[in-house]
Write the structure tokens for this entry.
Amino acid sequence: MTDAAPIITSGLDHFFGTGEARKQAIWDVNLEIAPGKLTVLMGPSGSGKTTLLTLMGCLRDVKDGSVRLLGIELNGAPEKQLVALRRKLGFIFQAHNLHESLTATQNVMMGLQVHGRGDPVKQLAAAHHILGLVGLADRRDYLPGNLSGGQKQRVAIARALVSNPKIVFADEPTAALDKVSGRNVVEMLKALGVQRNTTTVMVTHDNRILEMADRIITLEEGRVVKDVVQPTKPLQLVELTKS
Amino acid sequence: MSRLLQRLFGRLPIGWLQLSHSKARFAAALAGVAFATLLVFMQLGILGALNSSTIAPYSFFDADIIISAEDANTLTDGSNVARSRLFQALGVAGVASGTPLYIGSLDFQLDGGSTASLQTYALDTQGQAFVTRAIAEQFDLLIPENTALIDTAMRGVPTSAFDGLRAGQPFAFEIKGKTLTAVGTLTMGGGFTADGTLFVSDQTFLRFFSGRSSGAPNHILLKVADGAEPDEVVSRLRTILPAEAVKVQTLEEAANADLAYQTTERPTGIIFGFGVLIGIIVGIVIVYQVLSTDVADHLSEYATFKAMGYGQPFFLGIVFEEALVLAVIGFIPGLFFSILLYMGMSAATGLPVEMEIARILSVFVGTLVACCLSGAIATRRLAGADPADLF
Ligand SMILES: Nc1ncnc2c1ncn2[C@@H]1O[C@H](COP(=O)(O)OP(=O)(O)OP(=O)(O)O)[C@@H](O)[C@H]1O
Ligand SMILES: [Mg+2]
């Protein structure tokens, strides 16, 4: 199971709008994403990167073609199954979308409580630990309104990773981060791949990240125009969890 | 509060945190709920006053059965009843005694030129057994002609004006150019049809209402014999008395029929009934507005939660939590100001506008239901949407 591709798309199309305004944004995408690897999606603005990412991450209804996510066909899947699948994924969006009235810790805990009540003490400890890893130990009880853009983005990353997702989808996660913390985040994601076989699919324009990617897929006008698998040097791994 | 809700829901009290995060909005929302509650309370208060002032006169009488003209819907409207019906009724098995009841309206001259209309009830000397104790005790005072028991709670006259009377000093006043002497008191107060009440003897009544005759009272009151079932006696009376001329009801039935008539067939009752309805609708609209704005404002956060794998029940939970908080916290000032306004209204109009426990409970439950209902509608927008479309 671990070696099966966690994401397989075949003949995937996507249309926006209806009638006259109907416009195709994704054209016949056929991909197999390898487990435990960092796959980067790149391409010019409007090329369909976000659309493809949200289709693969079951945030958008798959209507034409097929996406198999963790062995489950998304085309025609009932809402209940989608909700269950989403709990196994982690999302990092372009906009951080933190809840304004929850503190950093509470926002991160939302990523844990989706799995049920659980033990609040353990949840709190896990949230604090991961906030420490993204360098926010001293800001963990701040409301988002009192954090900088980069700090908010790091909270969002912690929220996506806290529940040990099988796949992480990230849409330009480093856009709001400085060079060093951007690199740290990507290293963390890579480390998760090695230690826990976590698969990462990331949209990015950032050249510094490209060299760390295991595979780079280039989109243009909704089609895959280039697909390069590249060997990467082993990273000096950061310690992830106490467990 | 936060802790309490966390216990209650077994998760972070997001609804509460969200509401209390922006204080100004929270205050506005609470004011909205409080206002809606107030609106419903006011309308219910007036309707309640109509109800109790309709029922109240029936409580003067201690009788089992009332015979009225076929076209009479209340104590005061419709034709008169022939007194011979009383003698017919007395011949029916189970009827122990009876008395004619005369009702009219007299205008009492107030200081300053205006008048108060007094609902005037008259019974003959047999009538003593047919009134409640407070009046029966003073019944003998009415034997001399032109004497009356007067309503110390009547509208337009401070009750202190009757202090002398209470101390045993009768006072005389003029009505229709004739002198009437107040020899005793009763307490009723103003309603929607009259400003107060008078009790007199049939002889006095006929002197003031020269057009009326002792042979045609407004109603006939009956008592059943010991051991007889009023309902059975009523049906027996119905077979004997012609239905096209008179109707026979127990006193309780008559009061309820009167109430139903006042609230569903008379303009005043219908208007206040509508008022309650409008109050409820305005309330729901306010709460819906508050909650749906809140959902709309947090759409991208909710979309994120949806992307994380939270399902529809979770969002309903948040909105219900908000509805609960708004309902509970908004209800308190609403109730407080309603009680103040009730006191003001009752002082200004003399109507029996009173807060009742049952009303408090039902308005509270109504507020909760309205809040939850609007919450459920407000989250519908989230249900079908792709999370990616919500950002
Ligand atoms: N919700 C939508 N409705 C209609 N058209 C859309 C919608 N979202 C995206 N599109 C269109 O689909 C195409 C692909 O958009 P998408 O957002 O996937 O591009 P992108 O590669 O992520 O661009 P960027 O680098 O600017 O984020 C664009 O032409 C865009 O205008
Ligand atoms: Mg994009």
